[in-house]
Specification:
single chain; 76% helix; mainly alpha; 14 helices
Length: 303
């Protein structure tokens, strides 16, 4: 991701500050399941509605401080851009919903697997939709990931839809988000604003019927739900800053930090069962990612 978060010059070299920012963002995303577990007693749709609503003021304040509101005004007057933003907002809301539900339902391992598969699915999308030519090693990596999915499907008697759902929705979100001609921070604000328009009436209905957790839940629910905007926005802003100070290849390797932390939390923190079959699938995915990373670094050295 590129960003307009900080005015300094974008560099194609790794810097210590960029590495610190990037690693901080990936660590924060990695520990997100701890928060999601804390709100596991709240329905996923309600968590999503709160996430959209309370992200709006946070993202809005950031845009005001950065004086980046002009592009947003232009986007709000452009029907085509609004339509594109509706598509990306819908896709990311499905991605969020699957992730929230997966952690709350004791399937954080499946979520970790989905985010491990995601880079390989993005390569597949680039080849199929953008007609990018794949290196032989990339084809091998994709095939290994496909074998892992087949193994999990046979073992479970059905598709590992959580893993596939997260990978597919994030892959298409990244693809369509590239076509949205607006800065990352403005785009984020526009997406959560559109989602909040839907989420706010739902929240009002929940609270007026006594089913909501903001005014009718446990005392601890209030700070948990009110803080979700900061929990959503802060890692994005930190990442956007770090992305300006790091090479794309470095970001590509660092992205594995998040699903690795989620994997460790699922096994050792949430004590989710890790069968030999599922472990074997993870080994295949890790092997595929190692091949993909090696290929990426080799191409970088060649250039």
């Amino acid at each position: 991701m590129a960003s307009d978060t900080i005015p300094p010059v974008v560099t194609n070299e790794d810097t210590p500050r960029g590495f610190a920012f990037g690693l901080t963002a990936y660590f924060l995303w990695g520990f997100l399941p701890l928060y999601l577990k804390a709100v596991a007693h709240i329905p996923s749709l309600e968590v999503l509605a709160n996430r959209a609503i309370w992200s709006v003021p946070v993202a809005g304040i950031v845009l005001l401080l950065l004086r980046r509101t002009e592009d947003l005004k232009t986007a709000l007057k452009n029907p085509r851009m609004l339509g594109m933003a509706c598509v990306t907002a819908a896709i990311i809301s499905v991605n969020w919903g699957i992730y929230v539900w997966a952690v709350a339902s004791g399937r954080a391992l499946d979520a970790a697997l989905g985010y491990f598969i995601n880079p390989l699915f993005s390569i597949f999308l680039a080849a199929v939709i953008l007609k990018e030519k794949l290196a032989r090693t990339q084809v091998v990596a994709i095939c290994l990931a496909a074998v892992a999915v087949v193994i999990l499907t046979v073992d479970a008697g059905g598709l590992p839809w959580v893993s596939i759902g997260l990978s597919v929705t994030w892959g298409f979100y990244a693809l369509f988000r590239k076509t949205l001609p607006i800065g990352p921070n403005q785009g984020f604000f526009l997406e959560v604003l559109l989602l909040a328009i839907v989420g706010l009436p739902y929240m009002v209905w929940l609270e007026t019927t006594g089913q909501g957790h903001l005014f009718n839940g446990q005392p601890g629910d209030v700070p948990l739900l009110l803080s979700i905007g900061l929990i959503t926005a802060i890692p994005l802003m930190i990442f956007a800053t770090g992305a300006k100070m790091l090479r794309l290849s470095t970001l590509g390797i660092m992205q594995y930090v998040t699903p690795t932390i989620v994997f460790l939390i699922a096994v050792f923190g949430f004590h989710e069962p890790l069968s030999m079959v599922k472990l074997g699938a993870f080994v295949l995915i890790w092997t595929a990612l190692a091949i993909y990373t090696w290929s990426m670094l080799k191409q970088k050295r060649g250039r």
